[in-house]
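ok posting inputs for the beta-D-glucopyranose job
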Amino acid sequence: MKNIPPYSLLILILFTSCLTRNKTASQDKQIESLLSQMTLEEKIGMLHGNTMFSSGGVPRLGIPDLQYSDGPHGVRLEGEPYGWKSAEWTNDACTYLPALTALSATWNRELAHLYGEVLGAECKARGKHVSLAPGVNIHRSLLNGRNWEYFSEDPYLSGELAVPYIQGVQSQGVASCVKHFALNSQAYNQYTVSSEVDDRTLHEIYLPAFEAAIQRGGAMTVMAAYNKVRGLWCTESSYLLDSLLRGELGFDGMVVSDWNAVHNTERTALCGMDVEMGTNIKGNGKEMFKQYYLADPLLQKVQNGEIPEEAVNRKVRNILKLMLRLDLIGKAPYDTTGMAAKLATPAHCSIAREIAEESFVLLRNSNHMLPLNPAHYKKIAVIGANAKEVFARGGGSTKLKAKYEITPLEGLHNFLGDSAQIEYAAGYKLNKKAYKVGHWFTNEFETSDPQLIKQAVATAAKAELVIYIGGLSHDHGSDCEGYDKPDLKLPYGQDQLLEALLEVNPNTVVVLMAGGPVELGKWYEHANALLHCSFIGMEGGNALARVLFGEVNPSGKLTTTWCKRLEDMPDHVFGEYPGNDTVRFKEGLMVGYRYFDTYQIAPQFEFGYGLSYTSFEYSDLKMNPIWKDPDKEFDVSFSITNTGKRYGQEIAQLYIHQQQCSVKRPVKELKGFEKVSLEAGESRQVTLKLPRRALQYYDVISKSWKDEPGIFTIQVGASSRDIRLQKDFELKKIKNQPQGSYSEKQKKKYVI
Ligand code: BGC
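and the output
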């Protein structure tokens, strides 16, 4: 760069912006030219499904059908075109990546990118154009059966991981479909319930991850959710899809409905929704798709003059734009020959393992019980149904056919070989049929099996070490689509079982697999080691063994607060959950740690918490350079040292606190983080770049982001409650604080 004269940079910038403008202009031209050659029937044929997972094209113009597939942690197994059964292909077994709550626990942006690359490459190999993921809904209620498919309770963290995930998928020539837009946070009544939230909460909690996904991730498609928002279904709300999504968030891509989320021809036709998918029509075969709201009923209404053809054109333009972005028009379909060899390649499987390894969160490790020394144990008892369970085919729309799935028990056998004798006992039984559909559950969830407990206790008593592997599963009412959880308790009598195991053998390591927090029973008081993970994919068992026996140092941290009791959760304290026709998000901004910290409620484990086999020290907090220009990012730097005896990774978190403000603000909000890898004794300086937005709140009067001068505190730490460094600074006042954009002169007055 040194030898390049400054004007050449300017020329380069002008040239690039010229190219972009020319590209857009030529794209628009191409779109208009295609549109002008299409009949009304052909256009409408593009606006709805023509199989369960494809929407129509116009072959004579080189416009292909669009092929969709579910994510988020692998390409869904191929289904029948006109029904929900498996197509029973023999070549669609793919990489089964860890669930999104596992990815988020890594707090690792590079891994999120790799995750997306694997998913995108395998989608393409399966001939798919759109990957229906990631979901960025916020963990508002811990009972939502789909939280494990989303990232976090925190909007910033969700966005930070969604961005590289999406870029990874799209780098492979596959569009990411960010979902479920918007405010879809429960299964109960989700097809009819209306989510009611105030404007500030909407902008500060529920939109930022979508905003990041669209503006920074460049997500090419968005899925409109099942529920209603402010009384209107998401698929027919102009407020949601036109004002917010396309207006405020600047989305210019294609909106697809969730499967069976469209209810009306006119309202859907006239808002920013483009493609109707999965509508529940009786019958089978191709003909049923003509009955979709955006199929024959729309054709008739346009022909009658009830709906203008321009409403149709607008949607077709969005679809064509997507096709041009993916370079699909006039091209051969994605090459699916030799498909099996492109799926679950050794490189992809090893990425799945790496992500799993970084996703473990060590919650307790008294007396340094972990890592285990394999040389110390010859007789190990492995107890718990999750030790032998496979998860790839469960959970709802995420189900996939994993090329293989190493269970924890297999992983332990692989790791230990003949060096130890492993005896297994289940202790309890999973029960996929335990629930009735809907919110109401049978009590089989509570049922323990005395015979199985007895057997497990006897096995544990004989062993030198017990590894308990339990938690939740994809059973209905657990971590599964279509149902909410009845409570946060460990199902099938696991509390009772753990109590008995710890009594007979205190040398017990407890591993809880669950897509989110669970309530811990009395047994926790006697447990020395507690390790948590989500559903960890095809290499999960191998990853677990490596963490337990110390080949991998756990480095995950919680992305959602673990409460002591469900009743402590803000949606229960203030709010409404699950609501009936309406669910009012009365807790407002006070979601997750924002609530626990502002209201000083003690969590079981706080947001951002997670231990390591080594230790880290923080020092030298600096804000440098001083922030003078509100349009520029400002730097915060500090050092981290690995003060222990082994290699490890630390997730340093930065929270902002405004000491006084005219509106109520949560006492802390995550605004930056970095995962740092350090050898024993090594130090590293970390610099986080914060945009002006990091200090702002959403002002409902001016409908814009606003900063209020005053004293702020920057807090840097190992978790939301383990703050190691902090510094106050003043954001100085300027006269006549403007709403919206600032003049150059005003900018200069903002000096810290
Ligand atoms: C889910 C979506 C999914 C779609 C297609 C729906 O039930 O809500 O997340 O993409 O099905 O399988």
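notes: The pocket of beta-D-glucopyranose is lined by residues 70, 132, 179, 258-259, 397 (CB under 6 Å). The mean pLDDT is 93.
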